[in-house]
Amino acid sequence: MVIFMELIQNEKLRRRYLESSFYRQFFRESLDGSARLLRAESGEIIIRQAETAGNLYVLMDGCCSVSQLLPNGRTVILHTESAPCLLGEIELLQQQDASMTVKALRDCSLISLPLNETRGQLINDNSFLRNLCIYITGKEARNSRMLFETFAYPLENRMAKFILDNLEGDEFRVRKVYAADSLGVSYRQTENVMRKFVDGKILRKQGLVYTVLDWKRLQALCRDMKISDHPQDACRLRAEQA
Predict the structure, then answer these.
(1) Does one domain contain both 127 and 183?
(2) What is the pTM of this model?
């Protein structure tokens, strides 16, 4: 079933997002007329791999997961992104179908810029391209550093971080086979760690869904891991404040 993001008719909120420092470091006022305010509900697909990339998104509130379907049929969750950030910037530059799937992990507010209206202006704007290069370089360096640092820890710690990164509200809905592929371990190893969390009353299992029971213990398992340099990592902040 195809789910379309909701168009939000709130001009005051739209203007507030358009005047934010993050948005203005990339986009000129001449694009404001094309900018739409959208809402994606938790679990909704924002960008789907292999489909035509019709929009460049600016995530203004919320967080989402970024995953990729590999040629062998396996799905790997690569990382999470928290507001504010750009989504679909690579497709803007390469003019190709989406290479990854982006799914909302909680309700998200996004500014959408339709590429059929804005691509020409954006790719000919030297200021935008310079800031975009700085942004992409910084994001890739952060993701690479997080990947190397994460794999230096035992699976139990890595799984705790993975769960916190991919929560939908209080619930972890990622299939264990996807979690295993994303963490580079076997399904049996993943199952053993998840069973340990359930037996220890950190998680509750109901069918295929896990609910967090003990936020503090789950967060403590990855306290020493460098999770993110992002100042507004809403998913992480929620776990720390619980």
Answers:
(1) no
(2) 0.77
